[in-house]
Amino acid sequence: MELAIEAENLTKRYGDFVAVNDLELNVKHGEFMGLLGPNGSGKSTTLKMITGLIWPTSGTVRIFGTDVSQHREALSRVGCVIETPEFYMSFTPSEALQYVGRLYGLSEREIAIRSRDVLEDVKMWEWRDKPIQKFSKGMRQRTVLAQAMLPNPDLLILDEPTSGLDPRGMIEMRSVLSELKKRDMSMLISTHMLKEVSEMCDSVTMIRNGNLIASGDVNELIMRYAEQSKKRIEISIRTMNPIADSVLKDISSCQGVYDIQPMGDYEVRIQFSGSLEDQSVIVDLIQAAGLKMVAMNEKGMDIERLYMELTKGGEANIR
Q1: What's 232-300's CATH class?
Q2: pTM (predicted TM-score)
Q3: Which of 119, 133, 177, 229 places its Cα 20 to 30 Å from the Cα of 220?
Q4: How confident is the model over 167-196, as a mean pLDDT?
Q5: Residue 209: pLDDT above 60?
Q6: pLDDT in tens, 109-128
Q7: CA distances (Å), 273 to each of 147, 150, 235, 248, 253, in order?
């Protein structure tokens, strides 16, 4: 699969201080990845190196297979918002996009068409002729997202897009980003907001003090850590028809099952610490028994608990 971003051995030093240390980061085409870490962990520095705003001390960044240090035109496929966006506050969104469009070398017709498209995408079209200085922070964030989307990029790189927003602003921004997820677009979003990762991202890369802690598919990381650490999750399965004792016995003998508890005739709760493959065996057993499964829920280990476990000290060996 083509990689939208391929960062190898990415390192940034400022004298004796190592801001990012030998980081490996891969974002697949069409994937939404969360770059997760505490404040000061090196997230913004990483994004600046990927987008060419600063040069790495060592390492390589490729955008859709092209080395950014050798071919700056690779960044033409990227839309980005790094750190706190700034505007000419007397501009309207339409004027701001026209200015940015000219910087990209777009024609007046292209600017007009793309401006309407992106302002509608971020739900700012009705405000297109209002001065930005009158906007709330959430509206300004959506306007700067429109700027990043103007050249119709294949890859979006966003640095904490909901930072400083009130709850309503966060919900509005997440709604916009969730809509973008339905398109054939790749995105790398840095954040320390766990809800953003769990709601929007397919994969996550966690860093702490500039070091990689864990990287991979969100659900696979959760299951892998639960398996390695012997931490259990609870799986609740509900069916339309009664679950026979023979099926319960078969489930109890599956790899990773510690305990099984029927909750009436149509539901069972399983204490589980196994792999996704082990979990799929349970699903296969239920389906082979002719049962119609209407719900399957997990609780116990989630992205929040995983993050708290992995960032409390040291590096985790779940690459």
Answers
A1: alpha beta
A2: 0.74
A3: 177
A4: 83
A5: yes
A6: 999 999 999 999 998 999 99
A7: 45, 46, 10, 17, 13
Question: Which two tokens mark 319?
Answer: 């690459």
- Provide mean pLDDT across the span 68-96: 88
Q: In percent, how much of the chain has pLDDT > 90?
A: 51
Class of CATH domain 3-215: alpha beta
Q: What HEC string does the chain produce?
A: CCEEEEEEEEEEEECCEEEEEEEEEEEECCCEEEEECCCCCCHHHHHHHHCCCCCCCEEEEEECCEECCCCHHHHHHEEEECCCCCCCCCCCHHHHHHHHHHHCCCCHHHHHHHHHHHHHHCCCHHHCCCCHHHCCHHHHHHHHHHHHHCCCCCEEEEECCCCCCCHHHHHHHHHHHHHHCCCCCEEEEEECCHHHHHHHCCEEEEEECCEEEEEEEHHHHHHHHHHHHCCCEEEEEEECCCCCHHHHHHHHCCCCEEEEEECCCCEEEEEECCCHHHHHHHHHHHHHCCCCEEEEEEECCCHHHHHHHHCCCCCCCEC
Task: Give the model's pLDDT for residue 274.
Answer: 74
Comparing 32-36, 80-84, 98-102, 149-153, the range with the smallest average pLDDT is 80-84
- Check residue 229 and give its pLDDT: 60
Query: CA distances (Å), 155 to each of 43, 63, 72, 148, in order?
Result: 17, 9, 15, 10
